[in-house]
Amino acid sequence: MSRKSAVRARPRANVQPEHAGSGVGPLMGRARASLLSALDRELERFGLNGMQVAVLKNLAEDSARTAADLCRCMHYDTGAMTRIVDRLEEKGLLRRERCREDRRVVFLRIAPAGRGQLPRLVAVGARVIEAHLAGFSQAEIAALKDYLGRMIDNGRPGGQNQDLSTGGKS
What is the pTM of this model? Predict the structure, then answer.
């Protein structure tokens, strides 16, 4: 047996670099997943999940009027959105209304039951965020908000640092 084949025969250890997963992107993804998991756990007692509450909130704030609007603003696919809307309608939290001018268009309206429940649901979301920010100073929270706002601004079309080929440097 040659040395080369002996080396290949040994099982490879699953060695992770010391800082694997500690880049900004993976950390943001893990933070988002942690927030959404905690929110879903807290909303179980209402028989809802975070995505359903986000739909109700968008409708209540007039950020969206149709399922297509919701898909665009929430970056969700149409099939999944239809299922969410169906469940919320079954629970009596929203209703569908056909447009009088164009019957192909279906408007979504938050129902009185959904509007009445929304303040409690939003409060649950605020508590989840507060729990995740436990131990942060007000200055750290302000800095985090500033950093996230800047990232969002940079990601908009025409934002600063759009030239990714230079690493964001001119």
Answer: 0.76
